[in-house]
Amino acid sequence: MSDADIIIVGSGMGGATLAAGLAPSGMRVLILERGERLADCPEARDPVAIFGRGHFRPRENWLTPEGVPFNPGNYAFVGGNSKFYGAVMLRYREADFAPIRHIGGTTPGWPFPYATLAPWYDRAEALYQVRGDAGPDPTEPAHGAPYPFGPVPHEPAIADLDRRLRAAGLHPAPLPLAVDLDRWLARSATPWDAFPDTTGGKLDAETAALALALRHPNVQLQTGVTVERLETEGGRITRLLTSAGPMTAPRVVLAAGAVMTAALLLRSADADHQRGVANGSDQVGRNFMNHNASAVLALSGRRNRSVYQKTLQINDWYLTGGPQGEPLGNVQLLGRVSAPILAAQAGLPGPVAKVIADRAIDFYAMSEDLPDPESRVTVKGDAIVLDWRRSNWDAHLALVAALKQALRRAGFPVVLAKAFDRTTPSHQCGTARLGDDPTASVTNTFGRCHDHPNLWICDASLLPTSAAVNPSLTIAALALRQADRIAQEAT
């Protein structure tokens, strides 16, 4: 007898949401997670522990193409990276689903339009109890239903920032967030961005989707289990070799994240699949994307007494702004960057960091990274090799320059910027992209692998483009759509 009707490898945004979508079907669902549940502890709200000592970072290294090890900053816990996410739940814009000409090249678009995914965006926003307001943002695509809750309120300094940005000619809008603000602040008055969710204040993959799935007796979670390889026979996945022993199911879903899913497929190479499982197209691990991102700190003589701060976005440059009208990207607030965070991240002396942090409002500028088959994940023995080749960097520099100029008009005479590097996962995606053409994609448009009828993928690997917004809501929407497809085929 098989261990389940369907095994899901990974409990992050894709895997947990898929389980929530499948739970009412009655199928026996087994979720395998290599990590454990995050327990509450003093370090959970301690910025020195989180950003200075890296208390929660994984005890593992990946390699650069030159063989230099680095700590990747991806997390292995129940709920995956969403346990630390900024809780931003933005839809891809309608234009993101079509080819777009950027400064650095043209994106391939998606095999279906925004309207195809729109109903599942509505459902994902309901599942994650998103707080938002679609009205003020001129780039917001059509919704089939309003946000479940109104936006998280601006703190006084951010309400003042909103007014200043409007006076400078911009169109700031509320940032859609999956946060229960009262519950988050009841634990401690800190930001949530990059802080672990140990008490359910964020609606992350564990607290929103997995908790719902596990209310059903047909859904089980097994932690501390690493899947080492997939075995095949006759074109089907027949067995998973895991740290807890062999496991079988008629359907297998990989939801381990853009890097780990690709690495598992590549490590599963055998005599019949010498380039790796599901890799007849030679696209597994390719087209790795990681948003071009910078922290931008706007300083003035005013004290910023905000606690959480992350409630505002600017999309004036999302669809245009380049020298030939090319898109530049999204700007949103970071969680409040305190002196300990700034000292740890920028290497500044404590007193200098405090002077800057007390007078800064902190922004996150994000531009699209374009797919490139040579930007890729490979494996070398047990090691993961990440060869990320940035693209579209000129667009990002233009975005940061436009933001700096606008902030100076808004009354911030000093604006500092620092780009994030490969050690900061900025929405990794694209290594097993979906598509109609089996020679140019890894899965079909629902996430079923072209090469193996019982193997599915359900995480950021599927995304054919990175757009310039946080991918969590799109991953969740794809997962709910996939759940409906699997349940329909199983009846």
Task: Give the topology.
Blueprint: E1 6-9, H1 13-22, E2 29-33, H2 47-52, E3 62-63, E4 69-70, E5 101-102, E6 105-106, H3 114-127, H4 156-167, E7 173-174, H5 181-187, H6 205-213, E8 219-223, E9 227-233, E10 236-242, E11 245-247, E12 251-254, H7 258-267, E13 292-299, E14 312-314, E15 330-333, H8 339-346, H9 350-358, E16 360-367, E17 376-380, E18 383-387, H10 393-409, E19 414-419, E20 455-457, H11 472-490
Parallel strand pairs: 1-2, 1-12, 2-8, 12-20
Antiparallel strand pairs: 3-4, 5-6, 7-14, 9-10, 10-11, 13-16, 13-19, 14-15, 15-16, 17-18
Helix pairs in contact: 1-6, 1-11, 3-11, 8-9
Structural summary, described in words:
The protein has 491 residues and is of the alpha+beta class. The protein has one domain (6-490): FAD/NAD(P)-binding domain (3-Layer(bba) Sandwich). Helices cover 25% and strands 18% of the residues. It has helices spanning 13-22, 47-52, 114-127, 156-167, 181-187, 205-213, 258-267, 339-346, 350-358, 393-409, 472-490; strands at 6-9, 29-33, 62-63, 69-70, 101-102, 105-106, 173-174, 219-223, 227-233, 236-242, 245-247, 251-254, 292-299, 312-314, 330-333, 360-367, 376-380, 383-387, 414-419, 455-457. A 6-stranded antiparallel β-sheet has the order 7-14-15-16-13-19. Strands 8-2-1-12-20 form a 5-stranded parallel β-sheet, with helices on one face. A hairpin with a 2-residue loop joins β5 (101-102) and β6. The protein is globular. It starts with 5 loop residues before the first strand and ends with a helix. The mean pLDDT is 96. Residues 423-479 form the Glucose-methanol-choline oxidoreductase C-terminal domain. Keywords: FAD, Flavoprotein, Oxidoreductase. GO terms for molecular function: oxidoreductase activity, acting on CH-OH group of donors. It comes from Roseicyclus mahoneyensis. Residues 5-265 form the FAD dependent oxidoreductase domain.
